C-alpha cells in the first residue's frame, strides 16, 4: 500500500507546491538569523507572510490535484454498468463477425460521441472515458453524454492520466480495441495554456499506452493525430510520406510526438497502432471553438466575425471533412487493425503500425465557408478581415487520401455545402431557434 501511495504522489502535480513550502520555511529561518536584533513585531509580520505563502501553495496543490482526479468510480454497480456497456450485441457467428469491445477516450467530445454512437448502432460494445474539462462549454459535453446514455453507452468521468482507473477498466473488461480521441485540441489555445497540451496529449497518451501494453489481451489502438503535423510542409496535397518535422504550433508538436511515442510502444511492446491525421472535422454536435461554429453563433447574434487572411491577401483554405466521413474512417481503421502481439508487457512478434490521412481532398476558402453559412442562415455576416497573426495556424490544408482509400476503403462523400446544411439544422434545433424562423425555412 505504501508503494502505491508514493507512486500516486509522484503522478500528482503537487511536488512544486511542496518544494515551495520547504523553501518558504528555509527562508524564514535565514531571515530570522539576519534580523535577530530587530523587534518581535517584525518577526511576527514575517511569520504571517510565511504562513500565507504556505497556505497559498498548499491551496494551489489541492486545487490542481482535485481538478485532475476528482472523479468517483468503482463499486459493484459501477462495474456492472461498465460490463453491460462493453458487451457487443452482435453474436460471434453473425455475418459481420464477432462484435468489438471498444474503450473510447474523449467519448463526450465531438468525434468521440459520433464514433461511439456508430459503433453501438452496429452492435459493438463501447465504454467511454472523458474528463469533461472546461476548454469549451461542458454542458455540451454533458448533453452528448446523455445522448450516448440513451443508446446504452456508459461514459466514465475520469482522466486518462489516472493509471489506476485505466487498469481497473481493463481488469473489468478485456477490450479488443481502444479508440483514443481524448486530447487538448485547438491550435491557438496552446499559447494560452501550453501545460494542458502536455497533460493530455503527451502525459495522458503515455498513461493510456502503459495501460494498453499491460492489458491481457492487449487491445489494438486507433488514435487521432492531426493534419497539423504537416506544419510548414507546402507540397500539396499532403501525403503520409511528406515531412512532419516542422510543426507550427505546440498542438502540432504534441501530435507529432504522439506519432513517435506510439511507434515506440508498437516497437517494444507489440501494440497494434493506427494513427489518423484528421483534416478539420465539422458537423452536428461540433466544437464551439472552431471557426464554422463560432461564425454561425456570431452571425445569428448579429456580431462581427474575424476572418483571417494569409500573406499577400491570399485566403486561408481548409480541407473541411464531414463528421460522418471521419466516423467511417475510424470504424474502418478499427475493423482492419491487426492484432497486438504482446503479453505481460513483452512483444511476441511485429505488430502493425499505420498512419492515414482522413480528409476530404476538396479544400474550401474561409470566405466561401462564410458565404455558405450566410445563405443557410439568411443573415449577412459582418466580416472583419485581418491579416493572420503568427499564432500557429497554417495557410491551407489539403489531404491526399489515396492510402486510406486503398487500405481502409475510405471514401468521403459529403461536400462542405451538404455538411454545413446538416450542421446549421442541428445548431438551430439544439440552441432552440424557432422552426418558424427564416433560417429554418431555408433548410
Ligand atoms: N475536430 C477536428 O477538426 C480535429 C482535427 C484534427 C485532429 N483532431 C483530434 O481528434 C480528437 C477528437 O477531437 P474533437 O474535435 O472531438 O475534440 P473534443 O475536444 O470535442 O474532444 C476531446 C474530448 O477529450 C476530453 N479530454 C481531454 N483531455 C482529457 C483527459 N486528459 N482525460 C480524459 N478526457 C480528456 C475532452 O473533455 C473532450 O470531451 C482529438 O484528439 C483531436 O486532437 C480533431
Ligand atoms: C498521393 O499519395 C500516393 C501515395 O500514397 C502517391 O502515389 C500519389 O502520387 C499522391 N498523389 C498526388 C496527387 O500527389
Automatic annotation (TrEMBL):
Catalysis performed (reactions): UDP-alpha-D-glucuronate = UDP-alpha-D-galacturonate
Broad class of enzyme this protein falls into: isomerase
Subcellular location, principal: Golgi
Biological process terms in GO annotation: galacturonate biosynthetic process
Membrane topology field: Multi-pass membrane protein
Annotated GO CC locations: Golgi cisterna membrane
EC number: 5.1.3.6
PANTHER family assigned: EPIMERASE-RELATED
TM ranges: 34-58
Keyword line: Isomerase, Membrane, NAD, Transmembrane, Transmembrane helix
Official protein name in the record: UDP-glucuronate 4-epimerase
Domain NAD-dependent epimerase/dehydratase stretches: 102-336
Gene3D superfamilies: NAD(P)-binding Rossmann-like Domain (3.40.50.720)
Subcellular location: Golgi apparatus, Golgi stack membrane
Family of this protein: Belongs to the NAD(P)-dependent epimerase/dehydratase family.
Amino acid at each position: 500500500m505504501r508503494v502505491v501511495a508514493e507512486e500516486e504522489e509522484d503522478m500528482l502535480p503537487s511536488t512544486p507546491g511542496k518544494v515551495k513550502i520547504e523553501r518558504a520555511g528555509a527562508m524564514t529561518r535565514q531571515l530570522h538569523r539576519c534580523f535577530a536584533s530587530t523587534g518581535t513585531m517584525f518577526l511576527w509580520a514575517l511569520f504571517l507572510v510565511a504562513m500565507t505563502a504556505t497556505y497559498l501553495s498548499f491551496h494551489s496543490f489541492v486545487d490542481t490535484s482535485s481538478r485532475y482526479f476528482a472523479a468517483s468510480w468503482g463499486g459493484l454497480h459501477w462495474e456492472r454498468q461498465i460490463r453491460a456497456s462493453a458487451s457487443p450485441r452482435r453474436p460471434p457467428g453473425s455475418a459481420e463477425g464477432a462484435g468489438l469491445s471498444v474503450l473510447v477516450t474523449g467519448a463526450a467530445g465531438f468525434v468521440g460521441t459520433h464514433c461511439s454512437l456508430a459503433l453501438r448502432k452496429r452492435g459493438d460494445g463501447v465504454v467511454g472515458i472523458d474528463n469533461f474539462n472546461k476548454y469549451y462549454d461542458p454542458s455540451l459535453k454533458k448533453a452528448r453524454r446523455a445522448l450516448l446514455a440513451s443508446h446504452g453507452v456508459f461514459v466514465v468521468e475520469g482522466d486518462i492520466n489516472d493509471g489506476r482507473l485505466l487498469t481497473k477498466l481493463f481488469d473489468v473488461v478485456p477490450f479488443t480495441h481502444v479508440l483514443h480521441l481524448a486530447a487538448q485540441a485547438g491550435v491557438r489555445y496552446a499559447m494560452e495554456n501550453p501545460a494542458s497540451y502536455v497533460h493530455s496529449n503527451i502525459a495522458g497518451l503515455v498513461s493510456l499506452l502503459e495501460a494498453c501494453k499491460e492489458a491481457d489481451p492487449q487491445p489494438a489502438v486507433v488514435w487521432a493525430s492531426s493534419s497539423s503535423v504537416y506544419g510548414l510542409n507546402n507540397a500539396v496535397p499532403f501525403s503520409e510520406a511528406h515531412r512532419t518535422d516542422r510543426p507550427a504550433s505546440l498542438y502540432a508538436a504534441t501530435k507529432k510526438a504522439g506519432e513517435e511515442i506510439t511507434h515506440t510502444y508498437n516497437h517494444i511492446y507489440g501494440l497494434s497502432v493506427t494513427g489518423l491525421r484528421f483534416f478539420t472535422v465539422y458537423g452536428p454536435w461540433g466544437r464551439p471553438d472552431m471557426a464554422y461554429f463560432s461564425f454561425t453563433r456570431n452571425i445569428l447574434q448579429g456580431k462581427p466575425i474575424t476572418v483571417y487572411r494569409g500573406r499577400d491577401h491570399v485566403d486561408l483554405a481548409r480541407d473541411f471533412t464531414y463528421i460522418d466521413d471521419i466516423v467511417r474512417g475510424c470504424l474502418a481503421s478499427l475493423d482492419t487493425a491487426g492484432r497486438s502481439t504482446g503479453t505481460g508487457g513483452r512483444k511476441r512478434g511485429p505488430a502493425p503500425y499505420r498512419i492515414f490521412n482522413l480528409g476530404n481532398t476538396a479544400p474550401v476558402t474561409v470566405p466561401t465557408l462564410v458565404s455558405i453559412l450566410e445563405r443557410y442562415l439568411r443573415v449577412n455576416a459582418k466580416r472583419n478581415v485581418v491579416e493572420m497573426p503568427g499564432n500557429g495556424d497554417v495557410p491551407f490544408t489539403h489531404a491526399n487520401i489515396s492510402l486510406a482509400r486503398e487500405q481502409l476503403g475510405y471514401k468521403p462523400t459529403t461536400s462542405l455545402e451538404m455538411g454545413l446544411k446538416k450542421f446549421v439544422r442541428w445548431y438551430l434545433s439544439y440552441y432552440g431557434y424557432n422552426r418558424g424562423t427564416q433560417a429554418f425555412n431555408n433548410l
